[in-house]
Records
---
Amino acid sequence: MASSIVSMISIFLLFAMSGHALASLSPTFYSSTCPNLTGIVRAAVQQVVASEPRMCASLVRLFFHDCHVNGCDASIMLNGSNNEQFAFPNINSLRGYNVIENIKALVEAKCPNTVSCADIIVIVARECVMALNGPTWTVTFGRRDSLTANQTAANVELPPFFLNVSRLIANFQSHGLSVQDLVALSGSHTIGQGQCGNFKSRLYGPSLSSSPDYMNPYYNQSLRSQCPSSGGDSNLSPLDLQTPVVFDNKYYKNLINFSGLFHSDQTLWSGGDWTVAQLVHTYAMNQARFFQDFATGMINMGNLKPLLAPNGQIRKYCGKVN
Ligand code: HEM
């Protein structure tokens, strides 16, 4: 008994001396090792937004696509054609890898070998939402970077644009995320752009008002000019037509107006799930409530299955393992 207590204490001391926290995530994780982390990231994000506001939308999506595949472990950042960047939902679509790499270099210059790429992705997403007038929340730190990426998991886990509401709920629940998280986090589609190939099938078929995929005819008309029936698959349209670089609750007002861009958006209002539709209505009426639940959802998504010391590593460059 005494000897096993002694060995547990020595394992603890070993970790402590090797600089590993026997840790869970914490908002103060870098307080002594990189006290100005938030300041460095905030200044960099402000420059990014000034030169290309859409990039912040892309970075929020990058957070989702990292965290929804085995937790937030920066696996999305690993280069190489077998990796997640080449998975179907990401290829020719996900962007912002260079921005994360550049911010990591700024952080490395001040706090070498200290801050994980996974944590940088998480704080950049928060700073981006704030920079576009959205809510703020407390970010926790201490995630480690993975040693591998998993393209197969990315193909299976990331929800495609054609899912209906019950499959979206199942997808989020399989990641430990609630119906409220699904509806609130989908509100990210109040910023950014989508490619014609992902919504074209909704534009040119018959659109019956009784159909769960019914689209407002005026909205349909305006999308057709950007998205012809043949070709133009990579043409971009805003996910929220009126305020694509402002983080507001317009997305939900659009859904109620049958003006959601993707099937996976409109199904939240029209898909026949009353709990989900009620949440859409609440967020459309009450932006403060949306902001509160969005912040909760981002915290929940950021904290799932964290890779903690002594597993993983602090990558020097986000694009490759050390
Ligand atoms: C609920 C299931 C979801 C589906 C099916 C979905 C699907 C998509 C698709 C198809 C695009 C456009 C990609 C392209 O055309 O290249 C997109 C864009 C985007 N998504 Fe989602 N998404 C979902 C949830 C989320 C969540 C949870 C977040 C963030 C927390 C998010 C953030 C974004 C953002 C910000 C964009 C715009 C990116 C840009 O402009 O580069 N999405 N999403």
Note: The domain at 23-158 is CATH 1.10.520.10 (Peroxidase; domain 1).
---
Amino acid sequence: MTGRHPLLLDLAGRRVVVVGGGPVAARRTSRLVEDGADVLVVAPAICEDLVELLDRVTWRQRDYLATDLDGAWLVHTATGDRSVDDAVAADAEAAHLWCVRADDAAASTAWTPAVARSGDVTVAIGAGGDPRRATALRDAIALLLDTGGLPLRRHRPGTGSVVLVGGGPGDPGLITTRGRRALAEADVVVVDRLAPRALLAELDPSVEVIEAGKSPHAHTLTQAEINAVLVERAQAGHRVVRLKGGDPFVLGRGGEEVLACIAAGVPVEVVPGVTSALAVPAAAGIPVTHRGLARQLTILSAHDTAPDWATLARLEGTLVLLMGVAQLGSHTRELLAHGKDPGTPVAIIERGTLPTQRTTVGTLADIDALARERGVGNPAVVVVGDVAALADVLGPTV
Ligand SMILES: C[S@@+](CC[C@H](N)C(=O)[O-])C[C@H]1O[C@@H](n2cnc3c(N)ncnc32)[C@H](O)[C@@H]1O
């Protein structure tokens, strides 16, 4: 098709006439209403879908008259009656109005493309007059847009913002599609050591990557410095992604970062992630709850805290310790001293979801010695409870 000129129209408040009351007219009307048009529907009867739109459109319940086009900017005709569509098209032509005909693309002066919309990006597709082909292309492009598979970075100044993205525990495949999209839009990425760092390789070289660090004993930036850099880069007009391991709100100090943005008036959003507290045991074949074994789960930061060991030792179900390697010995001793059964299964999963994942299974009585023997190190998740023994049954076989 030659000579067809794509345009994006601002229809807000402008009169668009839709002649016809069937499902095609309803689909067109719905989209026009979404785009803010002042829609006039002309039809003696209308289908259910159009009835639902009646509070947002004007309906003339009668046959079409040429005067219906008065004041219009655009016309759609979808009556199913060729003679009526011909008359509408002829009147539109005489009035110098663009007319989209549902019955005959070749006789139309305007065509509605298949449209992919994702955030502030709109892609309109015409595919040689083949609507199914256009729809298939539209769906493929929409998927790429939604999942960050296309270069979405802005190249003109805009409002800065911060998105906290939960990257999952290590395997880059565990980030959400929304997280990927945020990364594709990012100008600046502030990244933790335990975030899925393989994703950094996909960033455009001009994206600024700031190391936040956050290993148990080596903080590259303090939390206050991280908060400040998020706010400062966003206030300079950048789209900032704070890429974190696991979920931003599970022992990740994400709440503090959101508060800092709110206090500074910076738009902020949180994209939840797959937390290591659940995913790392799962990757080792340990369901944190399991019928007959555990119906309750406690997640504990085992780093720099003095928990109530008496309560923890009494709790039913599964206890998951994050940041628990350094003090494993003292923690197991505390649980035993407070009456926890020495035979309680314990599993330690290092580098969960990564190719070097390793699981060590023992009991509360012997896990500390086993961990020393095997040189267990960070990052690791410690699972205490009957479900830990399932690692031997349900764990990876390759
Ligand atoms: C500061 S916490 C952050 C937790 C994170 N927000 C989450 O939801 O997973 C860091 C701890 O998460 C655990 N962790 C994170 N990634 C891990 C991985 N790939 N394998 C084992 N443990 C991991 C370790 O216990 C580590 O010390």
Note: The pocket of S-adenosylmethionine is lined by residues 169-170, 194, 244-247, 250-252, 275-277, 280, 322-323, 349, 351-354, 378-381 (CB under 6 Å).
